[in-house]
Amino acid sequence: MTQAKDTLAQQNHIATLLTLQEIAQNLAAELNLETLLERVVEAAVKVVQASAGSLLVWDPWNNDLVFAVAKGGGGDALIGHRMPAYKGIAGWALTNQQPAIVTKVRQDPRFFGAIDESLGYHTSSLLAVPLLVKGEGIGVLEVLNKASEEPFDQEDTDLLMALAGQAAVAIKNARLYRQVREERDRIVDLEEQVRKDLAREIHDGPAQMLSAIIMHLSFIEELLVRDPEQAGKEIVLLRGTASAALQEIRSMIFELRPVVLQTRGLTAALRSFVNRLREVDDMTIHAELEEWTSRLPTKIEDICFAIIQEALTNVKKHAEARNVWLQVTRQNDLLTVNIRDDGRGFEISRLEVLEAQEGHLGLLNMRERAEMVDGELVIRAQPGWGTRVVLTIPLSDNQTVGRSRVTDYLGLPQNNSRPPKQKQAKFYQRS
Ligand SMILES: Nc1ncnc2c1ncn2[C@@H]1O[C@H](COP(=O)(O)OP(=O)(O)OP(=O)(O)O)[C@@H](O)[C@H]1O
Ligand SMILES: [Mg+2]
Which domains does the chain have, with CATH numbers? Predict the structure, then answer.
């Protein structure tokens, strides 16, 4: 009789493990975060034969645990409900990174009875396990009241811990997948917006000016026969309009920042610019670009990028260089950009003439932009000896900004305008 009982118990155990394995495989394949969270709770309820279950996600920005899924026991009303991450049995499991079995819930000082009261549900026994990814708590999985009305035991804990381990990894993956998708959508939207703005600006600005120029040209054509002297005067006027159009197009090019600069910052944008140049130009570009963990202020990134872009374009256009060296470093609150080429150089003293009379405004623009961020631009050149452009911009501590924050608990009601409060729970102190 006992032997038959043991065999039955073993068979049940194997069946449970198989169910667990199947569930784990299904979870790993699910990339939709909401569906995945639902499935995790359904699986949890099933493996330990509980009558209700819920999944709480840790919101690091408010240090709350938020109910993402609640099944059974009228739990739908709980979705989105928040409680401090260091409170309750769930909070204990997360903070201590250990499972919590509670057989007499009401006698446990950690029990957060407010929820039972609000739902009119009677929790008698409870099992809560932390969702951990590489030692970091991301939430808590809870099951309530076994269907058999027996208390949860060690085997239930082991099963739920095994499930939680698989679930946590699947949740992390689904979040990463969502982040990548959202980032892609954001970039697509941004590109679309930039394209629309540009089309409008071209339409309202240079396109209008060009049609005015064409009309003016027809007028001048007629005048050439009737009144050549007046035609000469009109040509002078026309040149003014053409110069203004050119100026407008140039400033548009300056404003047109690559999307990668907006989304991933200066170093990434420079890398992609340099790679593009390498594809179309024979000169060797030696780029030494420091990697930083924090972003520079947008204005500095924009100006820096534009100056480097213009300097490299100049090398490509005028220098006939074999090599160009680009170095961007950030030391002791100073951003330094060095661009040097081994090309033909030029006569610096001719610059003013070039700027004033021939409308070459690239270098002038570079200097003006540098001044806008209290920077300094030094240009050294000599015919036959190459050209060097050095840009320095002072950075104070408050000028750098953190990486853009990622709301990686996703899919939940958010209230995340504040940074994490570092000391409220033990798990904050882990790196
Ligand atoms: N790296 C360089 N090597 C050789 N000559 C250069 C270099 N950079 C600039 N120059 C010279 O300085 C002049 C002024 O450069 P600047 O960038 O102001 O005007 P541009 O490139 O001619 O026109 P744009 O206004 O389109 O920039 C150039 O016309 C060129 O003669
Ligand atoms: Mg130029």
Answer: 2-180 (3.30.450.40), 261-400 (3.30.565.10)
**Are 142 and 121 spatial neighbours (Cβ–Cβ below 8 Å)?**
no
User: For 296-419, where are the alpha helices, taking DSSP H only?
Assistant: 298-314, 351-358, 362-372
**Helix, strand, or coil (residue 131):** strand
Tens of pLDDT, residues 353-403: 776 666 677 888 898 889 989 999 999 999 999 999 999 999 974 454 433
Q: How far is 145 from 73, CA to CA, in rounded Å?
A: 10
Residue 19 and residue 116: Cα distance in Å, rounded? 30
Cα-flanking dihedrals φ and ψ of residue 374, to 5°? Answer: 60, 25
The one-letter amino acid code at 222 reads: E
- DSSP, collapsed to helix, strand or coil, labels residue 99 as coil
| pLDDT band of 422, cuts 50, 70, 90 | very low
State both tokens at 431. 């790196």
For a ligand 1 pocket test, name from 246, 249, 310, 314 the mutation site with the most ligand atoms within 8 angstroms of its C-beta.
314
Pocket of ligand 1 contains residue 72 by CB under 6 Å:
no
The Å distance, Cα 359 to ligand 2 centre, comes to 10
Angstrom distance (rounded) from CA 292 to CA 267: 8
pLDDT digits (tens, 9 = 90+) for 105-134: 878 888 776 666 666 778 889 999 999 999
Distances (CA, A) of 226 to 132, 223, 314: 88, 5, 44
| Closest C-alpha to ligand 1, atom 11 | 346
Q: Residue 127 gets which letter from DSSP?
A: E
Distance 87 CA to ligand 2 centre (A): 63
Q: What is the 3-state secondary structure (H, E, C) of 282-331?
A: CCEEEEEECCCCCECCHHHHHHHHHHHHHHHHHHHHHHCCCEEEEEEEEE
Cβ-based neighbours of 353, under 8 Å, separated by 6 or more: none
> Residue for token digits 């209230």?
415
Q: Give the residue-averaged pLDDT of 292-314.
A: 91
> Mean pLDDT lowest for which of 21-30, 319-328, 384-393?
21-30
Q: Answer whether 372's CB lies under 8 Å from 393's CB.
A: no
- Provide CB contacts within 8 A for 114, sequence distance 6+: none
- Does ligand 1 come within 6 angstroms of the Cβ of 362? yes
Q: Residue 301 C-alpha to ligand 1 middle, in angstroms?
A: 23
